[in-house]
Known about the structure:
There is one protein chain. By secondary structure, the chain is α/β, with parallel strands linked by helices. The chain has a single domain, classed as FAD/NAD(P)-binding domain. It is built from 4 helices and 8 strands, in the order E-H-E-H-E-E-H-E-E-E-E-H. The protein has helices at residues 17-28, 44-49, 66-77, 125-135; strands at residues 6-13, 33-37, 54-55, 64-65, 83-86, 90-95, 101-105, 110-118. It has a 6-stranded mixed sheet with strand order 5-2-1-8-7-6. Strands 3-4 form a two-stranded antiparallel ribbon. Strand 6 (90-95) and strand 7 form a beta hairpin. Helix 1 (17-28) packs parallel to helix 3. It is globular. The two termini are 31 Å apart.
Amino acid sequence: MLHSPIQTDALIIGAGPVGLFQVFELGLLEIKAHVIDSLPEAGGQCIELYPDKPIYDIPAIPVCTGRELTNNLLKQIEPFGAQFHLGQEVTELKVQADGRFLVSTSKDEHFLSKTILSQLGLAPFSLALSILRAWTPFLIGKFSIV
């Protein structure tokens, strides 16, 4: 049964470092975001696979751990009030007549968003492909989605 969807200007799929930084960039533009991730906590692979392992390839940071990177990103985005929906996966994406996207999750949450930013680090390929197919009419340039 479809509940009244959460309406948002931006929906970020993926709460890893790139998704968290996307919250920051949107926040600078005064755009509020909701973030969905299949993992139970924000941080993506950095926090899930190597929280205490040194990372050497972050611009302007000589070395940090996955946990430090995640904590710093979470602190950086605090002022922007992103809402997190963790431990759930996107199960369906439909383009609405008005151009917005209706997104459903495995926890029966529904979102209606003008924009979807996909940071699908560990997503199943079939989901990534379905999102690309749904976006095809909105992509600029010549792309072929098979």
